[in-house]
Write a structure and sequence with these properties.
By secondary structure, the chain is of the alpha/beta class. The protein is built from ten helices and 14 strands. The radius of gyration is 19 Å and the shape is globular.
Length: about 325
């Protein structure tokens, strides 16, 4: 494991799950978290692990886990946080199709300028490894399974901004020698997702609050749902393997409709005497009809595969939300 790792957006769902795994490693890496607290905050870290707060200028001399309040859109902050780091895991982003349709400029600034700043900071600070959290969205409306060699045709501004990030990663690997790895995450879910707006977390949260669980469109649209522990394992392997310049689909390779997810979630909730009130609304702009991944490249080069069945993952997620309530 790298000695010092900077995680942007580290207070969020994936970041905190990743850190919980990292602190179990031996030797344990020094971890820096750069986050603007727009979604996750230091309060979300309390009780999970010990950390200290630090200004960006002093983060090199801070503790084993350091949190820096700052924004990836600010290059000076990015460079200060990158100094003496061995690896950057770039999770910070505007996430989701819906927000990108509502505010495409904000999506671009966070996802394109933010990614460029972190790559440029990597180049100038001598960071050797850069892991970029991408998505299946750059592929757009194609016949799945999605694989790494498909010509991209993004439908949403979110897909376009992630495609731009992948393009810059490719350029910084080939021109400047930064070992960039792009991981196209499937629809991640699991314990710790209390602030996520994607379907599994949203359905459970709405049901527990006694609110309608809304499906946009007819529910026949498909996605590839990956459990958080499987995704974290893929990130860790991408740091350790010699795979600079590569892009990987990180998902299960299985296609499930949103309606199927709703039914599985409702079944788990019914076991606890909680009812889901499922309703339908108009399809959302920018959503694709079908989406699942071919993960053979990740299996071959990262020696990785997803292991947690969907039913098990949803049960654990429901248990988590009920425990939080």
């Amino acid at each position: 494991m790298k000695k010092t790792i900077l995680i942007t957006g580290g207070c969020g769902f994936i970041g905190t799950s990743l850190i919980r795994k990292m602190i179990q490693l031996a030797p344990r890496p020094t971890i820096r978290i750069l986050d603007n607290f727009s979604t996750g905050t230091p309060d979300d870290l309390n009780g999970q692990f010990d950390f200290s707060m630090s200004p960006a200028a002093d983060c090199q001399s801070a503790g084993a886990i350091t949190v820096i309040e700052g924004d990836v859109r600010d290059y000076t902050t990015a460079l200060l946080c990158a100094k003496e780091a061995d690896c950057i895991i770039h999770l910070a982003a505007n996430t989701g199709v819906g927000p990108s349709v509502e505010a495409p400029r904000a999506d671009m600034e966070a996802n394109v300028i933010g990614t460029f700043n972190m790559l440029e900071a990597s180049r100038n600070a001598g960071v050797k490894t850069f892991v970029f959290a991408s998505s299946g969205a750059p592929a757009g409306e194609v016949t799945p399974p999605i694989h790494e060699e498909l010509p991209p045709h993004p439908v949403s501004p979110y897909g376009a901004s992630k495609l731009a990030g992948e393009g810059y990663c490719s350029a910084y690997y080939r021109t400047f020698g930064v070992n960039t790895v792009c991981l196209r995450f499937g629809n991640v879910y699991g314990p710790g997702s209390k602030k996520k707006t994607s379907v599994v977390a949203k359905f459970v949260r709405q049901a527990l609050a006694g609110e309608p669980c809304v499906i946009y469109g007819d529910g026949k649209q498909t996605r590839d749902f990956i459990y958080i522990d499987d995704l974290v394992n893929a990130v860790l392997l991408s740091i350790e393997k010699d795979v600079g310049g590569e892009t990987f689909q990180i998902a299960t390779g299985k296609e499930n409709t949103v309606w199927e997810i709703a039914q599985l979630t409702a079944k788990e909730l019914e076991k606890r005497n909680i009812k889901m009130d499922i309703r339908y609304d108009e399809p959302r702009l920018g959503d694709v009809t079908r989406n699942f991944s071919d993960t053979r490249k990740a299996a071959k080069m990262l020696e990785w595969q997803a292991n947690i069945p969907l039913e098990t993952g949803i049960k654990r997620t429901v248990d988590y939300f009920i425990g939080q309530k």
